[in-house]
Protein: Deoxyribose-phosphate aldolase
Organism: Streptomyces amakusaensis
Amino acid sequence: MTRVDIAELVGIRSRHPEAVAEAAGRRRRRPGLIGESGRLMIVAADHPGRGALAVGDSRLAMANRLDLLERLCLALSRPGVDGVLATADILDDLLLLGALDDKIVVGSMNRGGLAGASFELDDRFTGHRAQDLARLGFDAGKLLLRIDYQDPGSLDTLHSTARAVDEMAERRLPVFVEPFICHRIDGRLRNDLRAEAVTRSIAIASGLAGTSAYTWLKVPVTENPDDMAAVMETSTLPAVILGGEIGDDQHGAYEKWRSALQLPTVQGLVVGRSLLYPPGGDVAGAVDTAVGLL
């Protein structure tokens, strides 16, 4: 693991908070989202901002910020990794660590729908705003769009999402929209990964806002991976595959991703916990295998 000095980070934050903006101003940016490979590989770490700290059977795995930052720095150092998706606190740390040069930086925008909360689907935009991403010189934003036809909170999220897409497009900043049709089962929110539900979610997300010119889709592999080809015919928007939590079947997940990556609209992968906390703990090996799929 790359070593991170928490005391040094805290010292900078407490004595020189302006250092975050200064580090953002110094960061070397690369031109465009898609690099030399023609594909995109992003490591996601925005889960803690929703209070979603569990990995597998460990309920607080992502709560140790030192451990998470070291895992992220290692993942970002691997060949073929294009960048990171995270909330402001984590991206600020990575800026101070100098880990974001020549990387794509994606800010997470709506984090108000806390995991397990009664208001989970009234998903307020409590993270990065479009103006924040532009001010910091970041490369893109990401938002989560969960839709439950039985929950009025979904309408507020739909409206807020459309306006956020407009604000990003005004600044010519790409935005990754991650849509799901959801249902509450025994009081818990569940994403519907059946082909019809994923198809409908893609259609809804693609039609939001006054332009789709800067909109990307971030989509899961369907319950039956063989359905992905038909599902991805729903839109011409560029898409990345969402890794999600995969449990112990790492090989099976890789094969699902490999198949989806052959589809014409799919441009890459955005994967988080399954690479940062893989079975066996080999972060570098998990990341390198995922990069190899591209």
About this structure: The longest strand covers residues 175-185. Residues 153-170 form the longest helix (18 residues). The mean pLDDT is 94.
